[in-house]
């Protein structure tokens, strides 16, 4: 019989960074990962002694090249995945924050992602790879509309 997997917990944090165009349309930034196979929200591991909002600002800046300010908390998602050929089962929680764009260029994304790109928010909703992240984006859209 094979050994049962070791369970590990991980916490990440990320954000929906948005801007309003001259015509009043809302655009958000997504990152492409895994060789362009997935379009996702920018996020990353919460470092020791770091709080999730600070991680969100840092990860959005690193992965998209964009600097923003935190407007509010959007919510959190959780999912399971396997590491090391199934020997480790990870339970991951990701916190998400709404960020308003201040400055920066998507061309300045780091090597952790294949590309960073602005999308009109409805196009982002159609492009995103994971249902739970789409639900976060929908909530962000409602929050922006209500602000
Ligand atoms: P981080 O960006 O937090 O450092 P990572 O790039 O190391 O994380 P994840 O993006 O969490 O890792 O991906 C690990 C696994 O989980 C991959 O197999 C990925 O396809 C899957 N995954 C990522 N996001 C989701 C999600 N929202 N729902 C379900 N599975 C997901």
Describe this structure in words.
By secondary structure, the chain is α+β, with helices and mostly antiparallel strands. The chain has one domain (6-146): Nucleoside Triphosphate Pyrophosphohydrolase, CATH 3.90.79.10. It is built from three helices and seven strands. It has helices at residues 52-64, 121-127, 131-146, and strands at residues 6-20, 26-33, 38-40, 43-45, 66-83, 88-104, 115-120. Strands 1, 2, 3, 4, 5, 6 and 7 form a seven-stranded mixed beta sheet that branches. A hairpin with a 4-residue loop joins strand 2 (26-33) and strand 3. The longest helix has 16 residues, at 131-146. It is elongated, with a radius of gyration of 16 Å. The chain starts with 5 loop residues before the first strand and ends with a helix. Adenosine-5'-triphosphate binds at residues 12, 43-45, 77, 79, 81, 92, 130, 132-133.
Could you outline the blueprint of secondary structure elements for this entry?
Blueprint: E1 6-20, E2 26-33, E3 38-40, E4 43-45, H1 52-64, E5 66-83, E6 88-104, E7 115-120, H2 121-127, H3 131-146
Parallel strand pairs: 1-6
Antiparallel strand pairs: 1-2, 1-4, 2-3, 2-7, 5-6
The site of adenosine-5'-triphosphate has 11 residues, from strand 4, strand 5 and helix 3.
